[in-house]
Amino acid sequence: MTQQDFTIYAGLYKDALLLDVIPFWECYSIDKKNGGYFTCLDREGTIYDTDKFIWLQARQAWVFSMLYNELEPRKDWLETAKLGIEFLIKYGMAKSGDFYFAVNAVGEPLVKPYSIFSDCFAAMAFGQYAKAENDDHFLNLAYKIYQNILSKQQNPKGIFNKKTNIRPLKDFALPMILSNLVLEIEVVLSQGEIDQMLDTCIEEVMGTFLDEETGLIHEYTSPEGKFVNSFEGRLINPGHGLEAMRFMLDIGNRRNDRALVEKAIKVILSILDFSWDQEYGGIYYFMDVKGHPTQQLEWDQKLWWVHLEALVALAKAFSLTNDPKIGAWYQKVHHYTWKHFPDPDFGEWFGYLNRQGQPHLTLKGGKWKGCFHVPRALFQCWQTFEKLANQL
Amino acid sequence: MTQQDFTIYAGLYKDALLLDVIPFWECYSIDKKNGGYFTCLDREGTIYDTDKFIWLQARQAWVFSMLYNELEPRKDWLETAKLGIEFLIKYGMAKSGDFYFAVNAVGEPLVKPYSIFSDCFAAMAFGQYAKAENDDHFLNLAYKIYQNILSKQQNPKGIFNKKTNIRPLKDFALPMILSNLVLEIEVVLSQGEIDQMLDTCIEEVMGTFLDEETGLIHEYTSPEGKFVNSFEGRLINPGHGLEAMRFMLDIGNRRNDRALVEKAIKVILSILDFSWDQEYGGIYYFMDVKGHPTQQLEWDQKLWWVHLEALVALAKAFSLTNDPKIGAWYQKVHHYTWKHFPDPDFGEWFGYLNRQGQPHLTLKGGKWKGCFHVPRALFQCWQTFEKLANQL
C-alpha cells in the first residue's frame, strides 16, 4: 500500500461513516416516542419490527457516545446517545441486576436475562456515556454492571445453562469481550484491576484458546485449555478470532508488548489462510477445525461484522508493522468487502451474503445487526489510515 | 399421473428404501459396543462425531420397529431396534422422567432435558417396539412418557423457558406432534382418550394455527389463536405445515371426515404456492408471512425433510382425491427432490442444499438428520403408490 492509498482509504471510511451510515441510523432508528432505538430496519430503512434487543440498544448508545467523545462533541449525537441510555436505565435491567435480552417497543420485558453479553454492552454504553456527560453516576453504574459480570463469569448462563458437568468447556467469547470492556471502562478501575484483567485475558485468549500448532482460535476448550473433539470443541469462528486479535493488538500497542503484537499478527494470518473462501472469496462464518460438517447451517455465509473486524485487525496490524503480507491481505479483504457489503441504492451495509456474495437477507438491522460493527469499524479504519497518511 | 407412473414410483421408493437408505444406516450407524446408534455420519458414512442425540436414537429405533411391524418381521431389524431401545432405557431418561437431549457415546448425559420432543420420539419408539416385541412393558413405558408429555404441555421448556409473560404465545409444534403420537400409541389408549386428543389437535392445527385468509399454518399465535405481529408470530415453516397436513389427511381418512381431508388439501396447495422458490425451485425452509426478513439465516435453504414431507402429503392427498392439481404439484416436487437430494456416489440423501440446489453440508447425519425422515417418507410413498398401482 502506498501513501496515496492511505489517503484514499481514510477518505473512503470517513465519508461512509459520516455521510452514509450514521445518517442512516439517525434518520430511521430513533424512537422519540418511547425512547431507545428501532433496529429492525429493512433495506430501505423502514421499521419492520418494533422489538428492542437490549444489547443493540446498548451498542447504539455506545456508538453515539463514542463519536461524541472521540470525534466531535455534537449535541445531536449526545442526545441520540441519551435516548438509548435512558431507555436502558428505565427498562433494561431486571431486579436481579442482570439485563434483559429483549423488550418490546415500550420497554416491557420479553426475554429474560440469559445472555451475559447484554450486560457487557450495557457496561460499555454507560462507560462511554459517562465520559460524554462527565457524570460519575453513569460511571458507577458501569462499574456495578462490570462487577456483576465478573461474579457470573463461571456460569454466565445461570439457570438457563443446559449442559451437564460431564464435558466441562471453557467459552472464548467472554474473555474476548472482557479484554475490550476493561479498556472501555478503565477510568473507573484501578491500575491493578486493569493490569490483572488484561493479563488474564491475554493468557486466556493467547494461551488457552489459541492452538499453537494451527494458529487458530478455538471457541471452546477443556478447562485445562485442551482440544475437545466435539462439535463445540472443533468449532472455529474466524470473525471472533480476528476481532479478538485486534483487541490484542490494542493491548500490545498500549503496553509496548512487541511479542504480543507479533503473535497476534501471526494468528490473524493463520485465521485468514484457513477461512478465506478460495472459490468465491470472503471469510466463512463458521468452520470445523477438522473439516467436518458444522452444526451451523449458515457456516458458509459471509457476514458484515466478520469482514469489518478483519479490516480493522489488518489495518491496525499494518500500521504497527508495515508488513507487506499484511498489506496484501488488507487489500484482498478490502476489495471483497467494499464490493459486496455497502448498499449502493439505499445506503448502509448489507449484513448477510450467501456464499456466492449475494445478499440473501437485505435487512439493515434485526436481532443481531444494529448500529455498531459498521460505524465502529469505519471509525477505526478511518483513524488508522489517517494516521498512516500523515506519517510522512 | 398415469397408472404406469404409480408402478414406477412405487418401485423407485421401494428400491431407495430397501437397497440404499436402510442398508446405509445398517452399515454405518450401529454402535455394537455401547448400544444405540451413531448418527453423525459424513457423506461416505464415516462417523465424524460420537455424541448421541436422544431424539435421533428414538427415531431410528422407531424406524426399524416400524419396518419390522409393517413390512416384514426380519430378525435383524428387530435387533437393530432393540439396540436403540435398550440404550434409551439405560441412558435416555433423567430421574425426573424427562429425556435428555444428548448423551455421549457411552450414554453419559451431556445436555439436560429441555426439549419435549425428545420425550415425544421416545414414546413413539417404545410404542412401535412394544408392538414388535408384543410386550406390555414397553407399552406401559410409552404410556407413562405420554402422560408426562401431557403434564408438561402448558410449559414444555420448564425452567429453560426464557420468555416473560408479556407476550404469551401458543406453539404449533406440540399439537402437530401429538396428532401423530396419539395414533402411534393408540393401543394403549382408550377410544375416549384417542378421540379427545384428535379433536383437540384438529381444532388447534386447523383452527388456532391455520390462518383462513392466507391458508397458511403459523408457528405461533396468541393464546386466543390470533395473529401476533412479531418475528415468531410472522414465522411460516412450510415443512412443518405440510407435515401436519399429512397427519390431518391420515386422521380425516381414518375418521371418514371428508371435510377435514378437503380442508387439509387446500392448505397443502396454499403452502406450496406460498413457499415454492420460483427462481431456483424447491421449498424454502422459513418465511415471514409479511415478506419481512426472518431471524433464521438459513431461511432460503432447501431441506430434505421439508421436501419428503411434501411428497408424502401430496401422494396421500392424490390417492384420496385424484385431483390433477395435486398430481401436478406432486410431479413438480418429485422432480426437484429426486434430482437434488439422493447422493449418487455414496448413497442415502443429502440433507441441506443451498438456495441454488447444491449440497452445502454433505453430511448424511448430524444433530438433526438421522435415520428417520428419509426412510419414513420412502416407506409411506411406496405404500401409497403401490395401492394406487393396484387399484385397477
Describe the structure.
2 copies of one chain form a homodimer. Helices cover 56% and strands 8% of the residues of chain A. Chain A has 392 residues and is mostly helical. In chain A, α4 runs antiparallel to α5 (136-152), α6 runs parallel beside α9 and α11 (304-321) packs antiparallel against α12. Chain A is globular, with a radius of gyration of 20 Å.
How are the elements arranged and paired?
Two copies of one chain form a homodimer.
Chain A: H1 3-28, E1 40-41, E2 47-49, E3 52-53, H2 54-70, H3 75-92, E4 102-103, E5 109-111, H4 116-133, H5 136-152, E6 170-171, H6 173-184, H7 191-208, E7 210-211, E8 216-217, E9 220-221, H8 231-234, E10 235-236, H9 238-255, H10 258-275, E11 287-288, E12 302-303, H11 304-321, H12 324-340, E13 352-353, E14 359-361, H13 373-389
Antiparallel strand pairs in A: 1-2, 3-4, 4-5, 6-9, 7-8, 10-11, 12-13, 13-14
Summarize the structure.
Chain A contains 13 helices and 14 strands. With 392 residues, chain A is mainly alpha-helical.
